[in-house]
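Hi there, hope your week has been kind to you so far. It would help a lot if you went through both lines with me. No rush at all, and the record is pasted right below:

***
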Amino acid sequence: MKYFFDFRVLRLPLPFIFDFLDMNIRFNFIYIILLLNGLFSYSFAQETLYFSDTEKQFNKGIVLFNENNFSAARRSFQQFMNTNCGDNEKCIEAEYYVAVCHMELDHPQAELLITDFTQKYPVHPYAIKAYKVLGSHYFEKGDYQKALDAFNKDPYFDFYDDQDIKIAYQAAYSNFDQGNYKEANKLFQVLKKGTHPYATKSSYYSGFIEYEEGDYETAEVDLEKAANDPDTRDAAYNLLPLVYYKLGKVDKMLQMVAEAKANNIHLPADALLFAGKVHYGKKNYPQADIYFSEYLKEVPLLAVDRITSYQIGNTKYNIGDKRDALPFLSNAADYTEKDELAQVAAYDLGVVALSTGDKDKAMIGFEQAHLMDFDMKIKELSSYNFCKILFDLELYAQVPRACDYFLAYFPNSEMVDEINNLMNVSYVNSGDYSKAIKILERKSSLTEAEQKAYQEAAYNKAVELANDNNESEAVVMLRKSQRYPINQDLLSASNFWLGEAYSALGVYDTAALYYKRVPENSEMYLSTLYGIGYVQYADEEYEAAINNLTNYINNGRTTEPRPKVIEAIVRRADCYFGLTKYEVANRSYDMAISYGAKEKVYINYQKAQILRAKGMKTDAYRSYKSVASADVNSPFAPLSLYHAAGLLQEEYKFEEAVKEYSLVIDKYKQSAVFLPSVKNRALCYATLGNLSAAEEDYKYLIDDDPTSEYADNAIRALQDLNNGAYAVTGLEQYKQKFKEANPESNATLVDDYNKAMKPYLEKDYSNAIYSLTNFITNIPSSKYSDDIYFALGVSYKFQGQFAQSIEAFHNVQHMPSKEKALLYVGDLEIQEKKYNEAINTYNNLEKIATRKAMLWAVYNGLMEAHFAEKDYEASKAYANKIIDQKIKRYELKAYLYLAKVDLENKNFSSALTSFNGIAAKASSSIGAEAQYLEGDVLRQIALQNQQGINENSTVTEKENLKKEFEESTQALLLVQKNFASYADWTSKAYLLIAENYISIDDLFNAKATLESVRDYTTVPGDKQLAIQRLMELQEIKLQKSAVVAPSN
């Protein structure tokens, strides 16, 4: 809306008035106006002498209105209207005054009365007044848009009327508030030239608008005028320093800022900022810091622009507050589209952080700077320092890549020799042995130092794989380590571990070959005696095994782990048993018990076997029954019952034998002696003349597996029964069933079986699936079915077809393959997160397991599955079982799960202690997980404590919280340092490190960490998480940098 100004008598547009006033007759014009006003006043005074009573009533209302007695005035005007309404002009005026009185009295109907008046008399002069009154009313209520709507009904103002001046100011301010600076400034420009109360205010607002529009010189004049008025001084002092700064009058600006601070005048953040920048430019860093610090009290760090952040960081550094400089340099370096400032700030961040001893932040700073090419000298220094810090932090797995980058860009640098040395040492010390080996294998030839590094990396990787129970891959790495036999101690160690690996794989002859290569002067020789003794025992070379085991026991009695010595004593007793030296065997078993052997059930079973072998059948029977009752869940319980039944059968006590065999059949259907018990019970029934019971048992053997040796025996027995006086029901059907399952051409079956298994044995699993499936289609049931289904299950597993693998393993029906198949099933079900199914599978396996190693694997699986199902007490029970039985293979893992249970129960202190201890002991994935969880616990503690931090918390409390997050970060960095080859845990650790940085508002380091995960992780899921979090980080930064805009 364009505004015009009313000079009472001459209602002329403002431009015309200004032209007129500029003429030489200005004085005469003013004189005429005053003269006319005097004449009008005299005329009015004369008229009042002759007012009627009615008019007196009206005039009384005017007097009361002018005295601000609005309640009485309203009554007077209302009485006038009640008696004089008609064509009387004053009735309209009275109606106007009534509405205004209501408004002044803040009556709810006031707005409606004013609006009705303007609509009723739209062209009446008082309608114009009504609009102004309405606008002023809205203005006082702070509803500036409605005020403007009213003022714009008549955009004329009388600048000789105090009330109109006030209204004009209100109109100007309403436009200003609504952002209509152009229209507001038209009015402020006129108002600032008067001597009324609104003049200096108008000067201030004119100056504000001129500052916003960049007219700093005019703004300076107007604001200096406003600064001389106490009412507008503080507001003017808020803007003038900014104007002086823009005009380059920095000394004048500093003077005004100092005056404002001395007079306790609150300055805007920008004034403080500019004062800081001026002192920074003068290198007056202590003074710059004072103003920057004042500025930061009002503006959060993340809302500070990057140039200012760099200046503040540099200021902090120059006054010695190096640690305080870091977040500002981080903020300056944080830029999506990299630029010169980002490189310089990142390099300075590295330098300053290094000077404070904060190598983690220094590493990130140098890493970011060395990736930019704006200043190649900075790039070279950053690359060099990045390599050095990675090495100092013992992050050896990352050093070779950083060194390669340096050498690619700066092959002629004077620091090349030092970088090459760092790289070679890092190969040896790297925890990521796979990566080190891959890098070295890409080289066409290796120096002796690199050959030594290769030998050590391959050996360490093999040990790592062995600790993870991956013996087959460990063998590959151990043999690689022997390509370069530089270190003879490592060569001896690799021979020992090759023996261990082949022993675990059941390839005993090869294991013995490698054990024998370990020289007597090796520190591993004593353990080698045990290893070679065990494989000789397994290969039934009992004499040789006894010699080696005896040497181990005698020499290791005080130095070797006691459980291992006891194991050697038991195995030596087994060897004596195998040589039928029963007395010596018995003494050896007793010796094992005296040493505290935990395998008492097995030992007592063996002692019962000795009694039987010596013909002491009564004592043997009692011993078997004792073993069976000692632990009904032991795999030796069904074996003992079976042998006890056999003794009764040998003594022709067939009825008692039937009872013993029935115990096995009823309780231990999954055991290896189940089918032999059915066969022998059938024979006892037949001997006793209970032919129908014998028939039932024989038929069961054929129905269970018509290809088994027991089925062959059963069909013959049924035919014998039928040839006697007893008629076997459905004999022909069983004969046909047996014949179909056992074709006459056994040679052809063997050939088909060998062809089907060939791809599997060659580890060509894709073709194996085809050949094995084809065999099953053509021959659904044969004596090879278990082998075929087991091989098929393994083939599907290696092809990643886990559901098909589980189905194939479930088709394996007989021992010993059945227990191995069930273990695969349980492990796959855990992998597929089918934990309840895994629990059922392991429970079934526990009932039929015949080997200790199988039972240990069951305990391990149940511990994992119950934990995943959040049945922490059950998981804890199996963990304790593993620990109590000293099952070394799973012992550390059991301790890990106990700690994880503590973590789930929020028992942070106990969990933290346990994770720390496990990480120190384990060099496997167990150690990596424990180290990660240690960092996780520390973060959870920090998050818990963060809930108690608020704006009233002390600086010390906030600093302590920050240190808690930093402790978590340090623990997580140890995952990369000590367990670099476990990519899944290292990338998870870095993701959590990024969250720690976010928690302390260090978004630069958070971003750099997430970018590192995005660019280098080999775990697809973690890469996607990093990408997603980087996108979210932008929003987090916006939220944390939000500043409330100042009001007008």
The beta strands are 4-5, 156-157. The CA atoms of residues 95 and 389 lie 87 Å apart. Confidence is low (pLDDT under 50) at residues 1-50, 1044-1048.
